[in-house]
Write a structure and sequence with these properties.
about 55% strand; single chain; 7-stranded mixed β-sheet
Amino acid sequence: QVQLVESGGGLVQPWGSLRLSCEASGFIFGSFHMNWYRQVQGKELELVAGIDRDGRTNYEDCVKGRFTISRDNAKTTLWLQTNSLKPEDTAVYYCHTRWGFSPYWGQGTQVTVSS
């Protein structure tokens, strides 16, 4: 079955960096568009970045120039490099894909930006 396992979150000071990882299994990773979402406690999920199977990327405006999404299809791994982190980036970050009409999510990894 489809499995997405995120890691790499933690506590970081403002202007710091974290590299989030998502290890995927159970599907042909290289054929699927992949996304990173985040959710601030009490708020709706927000799409942060996406990458298609050819490596084309898209970003939510407030992370452009600070976050970079990438993938290694051979390693079936998705990454989100987060730089110049701000307190408002504090959230649970989720790896996501969709197979037909079925969305798949990881368990999430907490990113906390605080001094």
